[in-house]
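Please, structure for the following, as tokens.
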Amino acid sequence: MKTILLIFTIFISTNIFSQKGEKNYKHIKHQFYTDEKGILYFRDDYRDETSHIIHYKATMPLGNWEKHDSLKNVIDIKTYSDLGYYSKDTNHVYYFISNSDGHTMRIVSGADAKTFRTDKDKELFYFGRDKSYLYNMGSKVDSCKPFAAIKIFKQEEGDYIYFTDGTRVYCYNEVVPGADPATFKTVYGKEWTAEDKNGWYYYIKKIQSK
């Protein structure tokens, strides 16, 4: 049964790719292509344990994801540059994300494209900065200064959820009230997710003081 399912998955993947055929797309730059009609596409090369699916997507989500617009109307392909998880052009900063439909990109709300940059530290690939704000995973960190020195608290499994600017500790992008950056550390296999000299924390909430 597993063998049949695997073959069926590969067959579907191949058909999705060959509906138009890559030879009908012209590569422009990075992951962007156009077709014979001049429509701009984002090439999503999606892989998991059982399949390899290539989508050519002509739209991207806007705002709260309820609306989409064509890539051609949003992206200035001439000034577009790839920054890893982030990218930018003259008008916008973008962030790449994964969802049930593979990969897509969205506009980073409020980011200043002219001054936006990413960190050279490879561990900080989810972070970006502009003249006014720090961004984590494509979202603004309101309480953090834009040029603060960031340190992530590593976890035994999965991506980090905690980081510090040396003054505060953040869980995702929210301040963990009362957390001490100097003694803070993550834990695994406990009923809490982190601890410091002051107490134990379950994500953002202190569940007990020491």
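The first helix runs from residue 2 to 18. The chain is about 10% helix and 40% strand.
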